[in-house]
Protein 1
Amino acid sequence: MNTDIEIAQKTKLFPIHKIAEELHLSTEDWEPYGHTKAKLSGALLEKLSNKRDGKIILVTSINPTPAGEGKSTVTVGLGQALRKMGKKAVIALREPSLGPVMGLKGGAAGGGYSQVLPMEDINLHFTGDIHAITTTNNALSAFIDNHIHQGNALRIDPRKIVWKRALDMNDRALRQVIIGLGGAKQGMPREDGFHITVASEIMAILCLAMDLKDLKRRLASIVIGYTYNDEPVTVKDLQVEGALTLLLKEAIRPNLVQTTENTPAIVHGGPFANIAHGCNSIIATKTAAKLADYTITEAGFGADLGAEKYFHIKSQAGNINTAAVVIVATVRALKMHGGMLKDDLKTENIAALEAGMENLQKHVETIQAFHVPFVVAINQFPTDTEQETAFIEQWCDDRGYDVALTTVWADGGKGGIALAEKVIKKAEAVSTSYRPLYEMHESLEQKMRKIAQTVYGADDIEITKQAREQLKLYEQQGWGNLPVCMAKTQYSLSDSPTLLGRPTGFTITIRELRPSIGAGFIVALTGDVLTMPGLPKNPAALQMDVGEDGKAKGLF
């Protein structure tokens, strides 16, 4: 059996101009970035503004496990299947972060015969967008510390700076640091720390901005800290929004690539869903919708994280109308949610599968709460038995849920035809009746409670003293009408990663809040979730190398 990278390296890619031509793009609409990648024009979305939007399909999943779910693989496979059926389809995905690529989770470019390519580029440096975000983030940090060093005209309290530095790598040693040591010439010593780049507010801003003007406006609104009188200090106060926008002028342009079957794909932006809002850029999704009859996009991790934030943050910011949702589940992951150990998953176990179905049921209920039609996709693995897949299909049939078995990893688009047929039927049947779970005028506490109770199934939320004080401050500043971005473990519906399945009788602890005013939301940190992950004992990087021919080795 070939690995993902072996399949990718054997695939015949079209020159990128052929992909652009398929989308009827003129030479002014795109700029080549090598032979197989391109940057789309910053003016393209405005140029297409009078075109009718195609149907947008969101792909989400159950809570992930080490057994794997293959959400990105299904996203790519579904797009390929639609194209095989003669539909004009474009896939819109996030860019992978180097942290999980080099660490444990892996990339985000799909797998098998349903990948976006060139996968080595996409999983490593790609077109440099994430590096540009890292640079912009850290340039702002430099401007802040220089302002303080040069006299601190804004009276920024060094103890109340909330802006952190960033690095696109899992590096636990940088979570909390002291900077400015070495005497007066080295700046003022203070506590600082690092986020992984995909958790930076600048990543969120890039993915939510509609154009350069909106990007600049959002960057200017970033709150970097507070004065000695507890007044917020913004990037606009520092007068550096122009410089930050300049650093991002290329990164805001979406990237055009293709799949293993040469289906067009737009890959742009990459916030995590457990610690950020988990969706690719609004510009990418809306551009794809103007260019295609069907746009297949995804939101990170399970519906409790990515889909919830997609609907409350991305959809409302971008006025995105979603026609249908695909909920991805696997036999392997459901058996883990039912109590099986990873090493035992090759063994058929209907009892564990049945117990794990409660996790799928909760995610179905979440999508139903948003009033959007859905289809369950069973992403088949070679170790799945007929009895196990038949059990899931019967379970769905008994409840009136549309379900389709997919084999897109092994068979590419052909393996997603059954899913595509059901998605088309759902998407074309009626216009969506989407409704958010909360209204913006509700308090931040009410919003957090509704998410915790409706989406996670919690009894209630518990707000720490620190978070309670922050709530009061944020409401006083007029930030209470913003949506909430919940930072929570992806592995469980609760805030404890060990509680699999569908836990009950639990409380979500809100330990800290952080303002992301430029992005347009308030981040609520729950449980022990961290915005700078660490590497595992045996990171994936140990298997990676490059041959004398320049080709990557060991990259999945």
Protein 2
Amino acid sequence: MKGIGTSPGIGIGKVFIYKTPDIKVIQRKIEDKEAEIKRLDKGILETSKEIDILHDLALKNMGKNEADIFTAHKMILEDPEFYLAVKEKINIDKINCEFAVKEVSETFISMFENIEDEYLKARAADIKDVTTRLLRVLLGIEADDLLSISEKSIIIAEDLTPSDTAQINKEMASGIVTEFGGRTSHTAIMARTMEIPAIAGVKDILKEVIHGDLMIIDGSNGEITINPTKDTIHMFENRIKESKEAKKKLQTLKGQETISKDGHKVELAGNIGTPKDIEKVLENDGEGVGLYRTEFLFMDRERIPTEEEQFQAYKIVAEKLDKRPLIIRTLDVGGDKEIPYLNLPKEMNPFLGYRAIRLCLDRKDIFRPQLRAILRASAYGNIKIMFPMISSIQEVREAKSAVEEIKEELRRENILFDESIEIGIMVEIPSVAIHSRIFAKEVDFFSIGTNDLVQYTLAVDRGNQNIANLYSHYHPAVLNLIRMTIENGHKEGIWVGMCGEAAGDEKLIPILLAMGLDEFSMSASSILKARYLIKNTSKKEVESKLDEILSLPTADDVERFISK
């Protein structure tokens, strides 16, 4: 069997099937509204205590970053907007608090699930996790205990919430396999932190195994072996030993520059979504931040964050990076990234709609405070501004003009900022890649967003499971666009980075190096492995094969060729 590898490594153990409690919420009419609200308050208090316990467990077993997930869970639970909406439903509809919680939470969950960005989409799981826990407490349902696993096991489940994952006894958990989920879920992130191999998206896995089956999983490629032979077990045990030795070697790369075998230097940076994410980038010796997704500052709240709130969030990261580069992407929402208080129109095709830079240029009330905050924060570090979803030269010029207007304002107010702050764009639309020589004359850098570039080049909705097999960053058309963008950027004297998933792909890194990519920005956990790969790759050697690779007819042909 095969799924999506979400946390690398080999896991060998007996199958432990974990089933989440079946929570059925029935609507009931109530007479005593005050009593029902008291039940709600009591349930929230009990749930809050449970979350405190999970926070302490996560802090002990994983560290502060992962424990912060439960700080966020508590904020969701105690969010006044959520509480007041539930209370209002109880009062107006005269219904039981469980059903009111279910109705309100489904609205919030739907908002996040309809977001295109995988990283943000996965936050729906946080809201679902918190409200499921609250419903379980309100209904008096006991929870299963993953801490009680007493032998080396592979945990099999439909899905695991962050709360479930926090309770895992990492000494006994050899691996995790789920029917749902993906690389950007908190569960996947936590599994990688705990260094537990994990695989997601394995359809019908619960029908294929029983308690006690022996299983081997490879979290790197998503492969699963059920009831393997002794020879197979021995082979994988040797691979585990080799992997442990390789991890030790990776730690020795900290503090070293990222230079290929033949002396070509590149920069390895990390992608972040919140200020706390910077800790992992620094732990893994990231040379900067290649993508700060500012969307998080705008989500799960009732109003646009103020200039001051944004300034503080950017300043914290800039100072922690201590003059290493920080690329802040301006707000990338709109279309399918629904934020209720922005009152954005419903669209037939949100992927091609009113979003990102298109929205910001139209909504000065959003764009101007963000630009002011970024420019003010630039006095405290090496900040660069990046505009997303650019499709025309006119958009670039309008956005740059807005920056110049804000600069003039700050000068008049005697507020310090970096006068020479670099401005770049994301290359994620094929027309921009094709026309990149012209765009390069307008900006200081490019950052290739492969997630959307693949989607738009191949006309494949990357969130549609029915056509997931058609979505591939190995497609020759995509690779040719990437090469064209890098070459055109260099011809005009600007540097070119990449902040999409492809930047951390172990198979693709040597190809991108050979194409001349200057900066690779990826998840923090991939940085040291990428450094190892680059240090052991000759740029010129791979360069000699580029024409042959890019002339192959299919994505599968490319992947096979570079996997040799």
Protein 3
Amino acid sequence: MINELFIKSTESKKTKPYSPNSLNIFVGPNNSGKSLLLREIFQNLTNRYDIPESVLIDDIILSTPPTEITDMLRKQNEEKKVSAYESYMYFFEKDQYNSQYGSIPIREFNDFSEGKVDDYKSDYYRLFKYAVLQSNVLLLSGATRLQSMESMDFSTISNTNISNTVNTLLNDETLLNTMREYIFDAFSLYLEIFIISGQAKFVLSKKPLSEELRLSVRPAAAEFLLSNSYSSENSSDGRKAYLGILSEIVAGNPNVLLLDEPEAFLHPPLARKLGNVISKFVTSDSEKQIFISTHSADFIMGCFEAHVPLNIVRLTYENEKSTFRPIDQDILIKIMNNPLLKSTNVLKAIFYQRVIVTESDSDRAFYEEINSRLLEYKPEWGIKDCLFVNAQNKQTTGIIVKTLRAIGVSAIAIVDLDFLKDGKGEFADKYLAPANIPVPSYSGLQSNRTTLKEAFDKLQNEHGSTKPEFMKKEGLEILKKTNPETYQMGMDFMDTLNSYGLFPVPAGELESWMKHLSVLGHGSNWLTDVFEKMGDNPTSDDFIRPTENDVWEFISTIKKWFDNPDKKGMVN
């Protein structure tokens, strides 16, 4: 079993040690290194000689192997069943070893098996890892799991060299019944083993085979299964993948299983069920250690619903910088349990580089469409790999931003300008603190907020209470004519907030954008009408494309924060 992984990360001068448990899940944006990490773990544990140059893995240290493993290796070596190169390091002939690797001191096998060695990068330690795990590590790829219903060799005689999931389940009724329960729960079909022509294979039956015919070679068993079951040829990739993954976990030989994108071929509810089943089974079997890379929030949610300990690690890679960050369990629990966070699908954010949090769903839909058109027609202003989520109001945007930044996700909040109305304490708690703005800056910013609010209140009083609110309808621009000094102070105030990833709408509110379209209304009604005027046919002359100002420029300002490698407000 793996005791420690040492992961390379550009955010730290030293490689980061990671202590895995039974279930370890790697998440992150596309191209962040999740699949690569699994492949490098596999190479490090299974290459007996030279290991290819790694990008992410610096070293792997095993825990002390169980006595039965070291005793087995001793016996195999003494019986000459496994060569010295493959099993038992202290039996190397010094001259033979030196001819292969150069002059390296001979180390005893016990030094490694009992944890008494510190040169983990030596050729000896690599061979030790290979000896212990050579047949106990499996990288389960998409192609491998789709072969789960193919015919396999089997034997009912113990101590054979046949090692596959069908053979294991055929000889272990308890494990077979466990698998049958899992499969029926997923597909309402019965897992059976079809034995014919000296081989056996899994089939999924619409009806259960009777006990007297189960695992039988009698013609009646074959006739029943041929007429009632699905074989590999007429089963979906989803069924085969689900069966392939679970059969390896339940009945496979590997102690270390590397599983890349288990959600592949599965629809979301099935991915969620798979996460739940894997979590419960693996944590109850301390002899297995599983490393999973996934892009699926449904799979993660299924794991969480199993109520077992989870190690979830987020990887990122951007601008030639990599990060490796375990997600704090308390934060993970908050994401899964907090009603606000659950209702806004915040869990999806762990798979994105950037997240924009808006006040409402109308805001989310509008800014997401604006960004989409920027990426298409003015990509230098568009924000790639960005998830848009909405809070319930401006006061709750900070909860989401603070939570995401705590796990290393770059997140910003867009709020309407009437956030200036919130009082001193609320202004600090709801907006400044979640953006990680330094406390010494609070008094100055709060003073700016008061000055701006008073300027807008004065305008409102001068024009009568029946007039629209200048703060939301006109934004800062109206102060440019009536109060230039306050306007400039307001722009500096906005720049400061923007530098920490807090973006008040300078035009006032959502409905203040694109005034040239003359759309009235509010919220969803405004959104429906403005989308209609923006058009949906890119070949039409009426289709609205990005310009050099308005909301397009606002999004480009947000992009600058995301692109800044030294952005303020992120948690180190």
Protein 4
Amino acid sequence: MIQSLLIANRGEIACRVIRTARAMGIRTIAVYSDADAKALHVRSADEAVHIGPSPARESYLVGEKIIAAARATGAEAIHPGYGFLSENAEFAQAVIDAGLIWVGPKPASITAMGLKDAAKARMIAAGVPVTPGYLGEDQSEARLQAEADAIGYPVLIKAVAGGGGKGMRRVEAAAEFAEALASCRREAAASFGDDRVLIEKYILSPRHIEVQVFGDSHGNVVHLFERDCSLQRRHQKVIEEAPAPGMDEATREAVCSAAVRAAKAVDYEGAGTIEFIADASEGLRADRIWFMEMNTRLQVEHPVTEEITGVDLVEWQLRVASGEPLPKRQEELSINGWAMEARLYAEDPAKGFLPSIGTLTHSRYHGMRIEAAVYAGDEISTFYDPMIAKIITHSDTREETLRDLIDQCAATDLWPVKTNAGFLAKLLARPEFAAGAVDTNFIAAHQDDLIAVPPLSEEALDAAVHLLLDTRPMSEGALAMSGFRLNAAPRQEVLLEVEGDVVTAPISADWSPHANYLARAHLEHGELVKFDQGYGYRVALHTPRGLGAGGATSDGAILAPMPGKVIAVDVTAGDTVTKGQKLLVLEAMKMEHALVAPFDGKVAELTVAVGSQVQVEALLVRVEKASE
């Protein structure tokens, strides 16, 4: 058995590999870039080695640095995780040539499946069904156009060396083909250095079905059943589940057997995934499911397979790489219940899914299995993929599993970084998904509705009102009850600012500070953030502008009407002021609040400067009345 392992990756997959390796008694070594010096995978490993600047091309993608780190630390093996160098045959060979164990398939297997045209030809020879199309050597525009015309539109132009949705164009009619081909070739050349393409029939009701396969060095290959990864955005998976809804046993046997044949055709060792596309216009049928490609590595979505089979796939990887046979035979593997996974991204769906970066000051994940690499205090940078966690649920039935995943996405609270947690909860709650009636076009077709941010729920708004009225900040990031004001004058409603919008909220008389609501709130820089439905909402008491002195008391003390930041100061201590004269401007909840002198007088005290962060009711300025 391997005794020491270097993980040539970062983020949640590095943490995932470290967890299993540690349970197996294997010493772990992490590698990190400048941006990841304090990352969780670095803190979790037994040892860590700095490998360069923040950009991946200068650190995680430099094979020589990773091999040097392995040698320097006495690592016996290298696990590539997914992405980065995981499917780089040259790196795999370099690891082997350095006398290290490569935790992955043979370099020849990676090469065999790396080019889509060659892989399809090999699959045809192995009796694996492939999508109707053209993958010939003649790359002239005339030949490609003729093949597309013969296949029938719509067709899909795909870069031979493509991946991740790049170098891919859908063509609806013959007249659009030439322009789409030129565009696809340009992108393929820029992304992969190879502008060759293949043509495939475009499936109108496509579902993405993939099969987990595993091989060892003793000639054994098994499958661990299928996953459905049809909910995608721009060819990137968003939700995965296992098994696939609507898959009958006959179709499952046909597809999984084809996957095993595909793996055997390239003498496969280790974990891999055979990806199929299904025409689901008449449900899942064995004669309507075709091979697309093979991923020669561990998949992002491998936890759902682990959950339904009870297998630790990373442990299997390490055992197979150590020369052991597969721990189980095919007849010993079975499906237990249902599992789903949602990918949590640091992005803002409401702003075109733009990546969101920064340091997390608050994090709360909810669920039995969370694969995460960032928590409060960690930084999310621009240098790497915005996926920050995976939320996984498993239960006896699909209905229970789905209900749990909706609840767990809705209860995920991170701040101030924006995430797609609320988007995921809305997506999963769609009746079409509950019915198993979605395809790869579903998100695009319903995107406008899915990205709309819902208003703060009545229950959460009620909690926010009382948190603002009946609590006082103990410290940044914490809230504590200071007792109900029983002798206060009765109030029926209050004006709040929720993300800049003024909302009238009733004040319920029977409210009590339930722990779950207090836990789902966060105080930062004087602002209350209330979490609800997977979203974070800034909430503050509203102070109308233009009403005299704002937060002035009868003795001339100007108090902060709400938490905020001082963005302008128009006076200094000792200045003479007149009633209504602007003294300073407070910014809160994206709004500016001008505070003015309550009467003619002199600035006796000034406690703030531009940039000051202030709490509600903090003294800002004190004005003394002019003598009469």
